[in-house]
UniProtKB/TrEMBL annotation:
Top-level EC class: hydrolase
InterPro entries (alphabetical): Aldolase_TIM, GH, Glyco_hydro_27
GO-annotated molecular function: alpha-galactosidase activity
Keyword Mitochondrion set for record: no
GO-annotated biological processes: carbohydrate metabolic process
Record's catalysed reaction(s): Hydrolysis of terminal, non-reducing alpha-D-galactose residues in alpha-D-galactosides, including galactose oligosaccharides, galactomannans and galactolipids
Keywords: Disulfide bond, Glycosidase, Hydrolase
Family stated for the protein in its record: Belongs to the glycosyl hydrolase 27 family.
Annotated source species: Strombidium inclinatum
E.C. numbers: 3.2.1.22
Organism phylogeny: Eukaryota, Sar, Alveolata, Ciliophora, Intramacronucleata
Name of the molecule in the record: Alpha-galactosidase
């Protein structure tokens, strides 16, 4: 894995992995990190991992998620590598209360890929719902600690340009981590141009600006067109 990490870094990319916080991998076909947090955290650091998504799969139910996820967070801090720690409880386990103290990011809802097999309208509604949650919990965001709205559905299940552009901008201004789920090599120039929007990118990266919130006259039935957003 160290060789793989080196190749990824040589390509000027970041090395990210997804690991189960339980006794089995999320697909049930391998081990999870439960009970081996310190050993695994050191392995991740030795491999050169930059990003760890730690997912609440196959837990035994004998400890709270806060205890289990804190243990991995502490193990990562004990290594000599700065690893972005992303926890995923799909918005459950009261993560909004302890996530900001434990991790760099925390998911607010079930994975967006859960809507992939359904009509596009469901993906669009799910996207808007995630944005509403981000607004509700905007006060939880601070430098190095972010609400994770899920992967961007650009050029996958949000095929219209206005949908993809809205998805990117809403996520960016909410300060969510930005992960593409489409094939970058096949994206249109118009779509790629939205990723180069310096206003949105700078807002996402600027630690001196708060996450977007809702101002007066908000229409929660249609956040894309009816929200008047501002920085506080």
């Amino acid at each position: 894995m160290k060789d793989l990490g080196d190749k990824i870094h040589d390509a000027e990319l970041k090395f990210g992995i997804t690991v189960s916080a339980g006794v089995k991998a999320c697909k049930g076909d391998g081990p999870g990190s439960y009970g081996y947090e310190e050993t695994d955290a050191q392995d991740f650091a030795d491999w050169g991992v930059d990003y760890l998504k730690y997912v609440d799969c196959f837990n035994l139910g004998t400890e709270t998620a806060e205890v289990r996820f804190t243990r991995m967070g502490d193990a990562l801090k004990a290594t000599d590598r700065d690893v972005f720690y992303a926890v995923s409880t799909w918005g459950g386990e009261n993560v909004i209360e302890w996530g900001p103290q434990v991790a760099n990011s925390w998911t607010l809802s079930p994975d967006l890929y859960g809507v992939y097999s359904k009509p596009i309208g469901n993906a669009w509604q799910h996207m808007k719902g995630n944005f509403l949650q981000a607004i509700a919990y905007a006060d939880k965001v601070s430098a190095g600690h972010y609400n994770d709205l899920g992967e961007l559905l650009i050029d996958t299940f949000l095929s219209e340009y206005y949908e993809s552009n809205a998805n990117f901008n809403l996520w960016a201004f909410s300060k969510s981590p930005l992960f593409l789920s489409g094939n970058v090599g096949k994206m249109s120039e118009q779509t790629l141009a939205s990723f180069r929007d310096e206003v949105a990118i700078n807002a996402n990266k600027n630690s001196f600006q708060n996450a977007v919130t809702c101002h007066d006259g908000c229409d929660y039935s249609d956040p894309v067109s009816s929200f008047t957003a501002l920085y506080q």
